[in-house]
Target: WD40 repeat protein
Amino acid sequence: MRPRLAGSAAVLAVLSLQACTSQPSAEKPVSGSSARSAPYLGNRGYALSDSPFTREDTVVTARCGVGARYAGVVVTAWDPESWKPRATRWFAVPEDAAFNNYSGAKTVHSPLVDLCAENPEAPAPYPTDSLEHIAPRVRALFDLSYTRMAVVLRDPGGKTASHVGFVKSDAEQDDFVRLSGAAGDDEQNAVMSPDGRTVWFTYADRDGRKRIGFRSAEGDHHLSDEGPAAGNDLPLTVTGKPARAVQANMVHLAPHGRRLTATAPKVFGTVFDTWNSSAPLSRTSARGALLLSGCAGVVGWAGDDRVLCRTSSGSFRTMDARTGRAAGAPISVVGPQDGTVAEGMLVSPDGTKFIISVHRPNAEQDPDYGYHAPDFRVVPTTRGGTATDLADEELDLHTVFLSWS
Model:
């Protein structure tokens, strides 16, 4: 379980400085002239502009800071050999954006609340909050190039309506795009498409039925309906070309793009065939279901047919996505007497390493925990290797690891 903590002073210092000096990013979400395939994301149909965030051999993280005047998300590209930052972008959170849930306001389902929530007593956006659940949810807020971030915006007063929009990187706090504004809108779970051209979300139609839809980031932003949704409690992930939304937990697209991991209540399986239309994971939409035995949390794909899982015993193990059985020995990161738990966030592109966070169970209940240093480690996916500690002033207890290309 990821601790929900007060905003980082370092993040807020960056936000305060950039709020005064930043200029809108000139980088386009997609560039044909400097085209390159999105590495290892299963989304190889998209051409990305070249930047430190889209190059191979890059790790990307996000962290949130909340203060009296500014709130924002800092996204950092890292060199996975030296673990030094290569580049940083920031996304100012609009004043009306839902980045926490609080008494008297409409409770909003959004991965941004996962990233920024401060009060552990406040309503959580989703029923599950292990890092294996949170990391892919937060990743879905951004396009593949990390140039745009989707947000859910409350109406002034914050009690009834919510609308979707997006923020461009390095823009001013009041420089955001609201994609709808009709009275009574109930739009939630906002996420970006891989190319950054559309924002996808769940919404309630005139009869109160929950649906999946999207709005274009350009033009008239009209609503395009994609079919029924499974309420608001399950997050969205948008993958593939043409883009389609999967409503489920722990969605990771395989490198070849033909299979994905996902879970949903009352649905058998952990690995499924991708489908050609947007839908919640259900007994009807599930195709080629395969259960990864003992998998309590999906960390990511370690190859076309291998998935790294946190097991129900707390160790990590590579599973065969064709048979559902173990394909490697269990990897114990913490001992039974340590008083800590380990949760996974990311697997390297070659499947040889993964990143974990080690912390005490229910750490958010400790009022002093926000002053502790994070315990991130890079661990080999094979037994007997040596783990490497990750320590940098840019890493804090708010940091979520999003992608490793």
User: Anything to note?
Assistant: The first helix runs from residue 9 to 21.
